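Progress report, Aim 2. The chain analyzed during this reporting quarter is listed below.
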Amino acid sequence: MTKILVVEDNADLAYGLKNNFEIEGYAVEVVEDGATGLLRARSGEPDLIVLDLMLPELDGYRVLRGLRGEGVNVPVLILTARGEEADKVLGFRLGADDYVTKPFSPKELVARVGALLRRVERAKQVQLRQQFGPISIDADRHVVTVEGEEVRLTAKEFLLLEYLVRHRGRVLSRDLLLSDVWGYQYTGGTRTVDVHVSRLREKIPYLAGALETVKQFGYKLIEP
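Predicted structure tokens for the chain:
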């Protein structure tokens, strides 16, 4: 059974989330502070984490930074009242896979969680290695290496890189990337794509020259 970890200090909201997810057939664990959330994420092996930002003990940003710093690549959906662009950009830079602001539609949240889990599962099921210059992508094991050295990517960074490599040589608009990689009519804005492209270029310097920005449109991965 798919396991969801909800890290939320509002007991009423957490209960509502738990109820909605369990109706869809998920197993749900709720914790009320960031420190416990980080501990359970490390040891409980959840398939997805719904993470508030304003938490006691340890805020959501620090939880996310701790997870990604340790190479824990479980998908993370931030659910928070903090809706400023700077908050969203920071969340994605730290490795969030989706970002939903309160108040929110429970049905939309459940749909986003389902879409994120399906995309991750599809990536796991692909039995194909892809090569782009020194970059090797093993979609079956969800591993990226550059000249034999593993590069740790978040789930969304991996999916974006895999999509770019599969469509190498094509000019891809930001809207297309949002639709095909983020899915479910993602409303976070095209800035989200730019943030993830920037992180890929930082983690894989080879992409700094190979991944071109097409002004006012999107990106193109140049054939090596």
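The radius of gyration is 17 Å. Residues 3-121 form a domain with the Rossmann fold fold (CATH 3.40.50.2300). These observations will guide the mutagenesis work planned for the next reporting period.
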